[in-house]
Design a protein that fits this description.
This protein has 2 domains: 4-144, N6 adenine-specific DNA methyltransferase, N-terminal domain (Ferritin); 152-186 and 270-464, Vaccinia Virus protein VP39 (Rossmann fold), CATH 3.40.50. 46% of the residues lie in helices and 13% in strands. The protein is built from 21 helices and 13 strands. The N and C termini lie far apart (72 Å).
């Protein structure tokens, strides 16, 4: 979490862009990311210089050469507005696009555009970014997440930001471990990957090492992580793919600000023919954990989809193809939690039923968490569920849970409310037992796979939920008429008294 002052500073920075004529939320975040990236490069270079000075030598692989020293943040911020704009637009930004800084974000800058046209806006933005705590560990990650929270519009392909508390539930359901490889085939802003990073540090921090800020918020240094595990987290743990270059730049910045200096983030349509060719180790049997909320609007041209996916499920629907893709990406025994629209659970087409059959008979479908339809507002009102499955094996029972409240109002405002089923869902998941969880009238229960097969692989919660009907007793018609006559008599008496008072 971040303090009130930092929130206020970010709000002011946001307002500067809006009053300066840049009103697209994604563009605002992208432009702020560029400035933050430039400042981070200067911070990294300064750290290298200090380390070299202590050893009495020169820095290795400098980010800025002698001619580029004027591009550094501490030099740039001192320039007057018109000169700052000219240098940034004509020299610094081309440098960022061609940067050999060795960072993932630098790799995704090639087609970036500098949208700030007013010197006053640039000066104000630089001054505000200069005040942000980009050197304060976990605070800078929380800062960027708060900034990303201002994304309030869905993308043209059905993209929308998954709420952090839903991501945290999904991550906790899978409980990723430090040595595992984690992927998101449609990573967007890398929300799932950053929260896995947070989870790994939190679950590997001893109680005595927890750090609390002045507001009581906790940060986790991960003191129980080994050196090798930390190296793996930095270089080998997180892998993201997306075909939106703007999202990739934001994803790379998000991970960098959460302490993953060089995340493996790539421009790639993971459903396409080129994915297995470009990333053979990622496309097949590559990952221990996959977390995803892939876009599920529209359909694809059959010729663009890799044949191996069509062999699993012959369809053009992206929501079905992504499940087939994830099954291919996972190692045997690998785990997945993904969000799917309700239609995946009970669709009657051949493709829908074939995919559910694959999940149940060729893999282990472990659980399904039904979410209320307002969870993704204001982006969308679609009703969804979380599928939890393991590649390989077979399914004996499926665990169902019905979330009726997630701690926020289910309207466009999404204000905090008292009711919240998510902690209970996680607690019951961790204690689940097919022999005990049989009460079909409760929020969660197990269903034998045989029964699901008999229902044509239907996975909708309400198909198996038992509703208890309470018998209601009514008065006899004669008693009702008697009461009505008594009521009529009382009304008549009151009217007579009122008429007498009026004279």
């Amino acid at each position: 979490m971040i303090t009130g002052k930092i929130r206020s500073d970010i709000d002011k920075l946001w307002e500067e862009f809006w009053t300066g004529g840049i009103t697209n939320p994604l563009t605002v975040i992208e432009q702020i990311s560029f400035l933050m990236f430039l400042r981070l490069l200067d911070i990294q270079e300064t750290a290298k210089e200090r380390a070299a000075a202590r050893k009495g030598g020169q820095i290795k692989a400098p980010i800025f050469n002698q001619k580029q020293q004027k591009f550094r943040w501490n030099k740039l911020k001192q320039l007057p507005g018109p000169e700052m704009l000219k240098v940034t637009r004509d020299e610094v930004f081309p440098f960022l696009r061609d940067s050999k800084a060795g960072t993932t974000l630098g790799d995704h800058m090639k087609d970036a555009q500098f949208m700030i046209q007013k010197p006053s806006l640039l000066v104000n933005a630089v001054n505000m970014v200069d005040q942000l705590p980009l050197t304060q560990g976990d605070v800078k990650g929380d800062l960027y997440e708060y900034l990303l929270g201002k994304l309030t519009t869905a993308g043209i392909n059905g993209q929308f930001r998954t709420p952090r508390h839903i991501i945290d539930l999904m991550v906790a359901l899978l409980n990723p471990r430090p040595g595992e490889r984690v992927a998101d085939p449609a990573c967007g802003t890398a929300g799932f990957l950053t929260r896995v990073n947070h989870h790994v540090f939190k679950t590997n921090t001893s109680k005595g090492a927890i750090i609390k800020d002045e507001e009581g918020h906790e940060y986790y240094p991960g003191d129980q992580l080994s050196t090798e595990e930390r190296k793996h987290i930095q270089r080998g743990m997180f892998h993201g793919f997306d075909f939106d270059s703007t999202m990739l730049r934001i994803a790379a910045m998000n991970l960098m600000l959460h302490g993953v200096d060089n995340p493996d983030i790539h421009y790639q349509d993971t459903l396409s023919n080129s994915f297995p060719e470009r990333f053979p180790k990622a496309a097949e049997n590559g990952f221990d954990v996959v977390l995803a909320n892939p876009p599920f609007k529209g359909s694809l041209d059959e010729g663009d989809v890799h044949p191996s996916l069509m062999r699993v499920v012959k369809t053009k629907k992206t929501e079905l193809l992504f499940i087939a893709l994830i099954l291919r990406m996972l190692k045997v025994g690998g785990r997945c939690a993904m969000i799917v629209p309700d239609g995946v659970l009970f669709g009657t087409s051949t493709a829908h039923q074939a995919l559910r059959k694959t999940l149940l008979e060729d893999n282990q479908l472990e659980g399904l968490v039904k979410l209320p339809s307002g969870v993704f507002k204001p982006y969308a009102g679609v009703s969804t569920a979380i599928l939890i499955f393991t590649k390989g094996g077979k399914t004996d029972h499926v665990w169902f849970y019905n979330v009726e409240a997630d701690g926020y109002s289910l309207d466009d405002k999404r204000d905090p409310v008292k009711d919240n089923d998510l902690p209970d869902a996680l607690a019951r998941w961790e204690k689940r037992n097919p022999k005990k969880d049989k009460d079909r009238t409760s929020k969660c229960f197990y269903v034998p796979v045989k029964e699901i097969i008999e229902q044509k692989y239907d996975l909708s919660f309400n198909r198996y939920k038992e509703v208890v009907h309470q018998e209601v007793e009514y008065d006899s018609p004669k008693d009702i008429i008697k009461k009505l006559r008594a009521l009529e008599k009382a009304i008549s008496k009151d009217l007579d008294e009122l008429e007498g008072m009026l004279g």
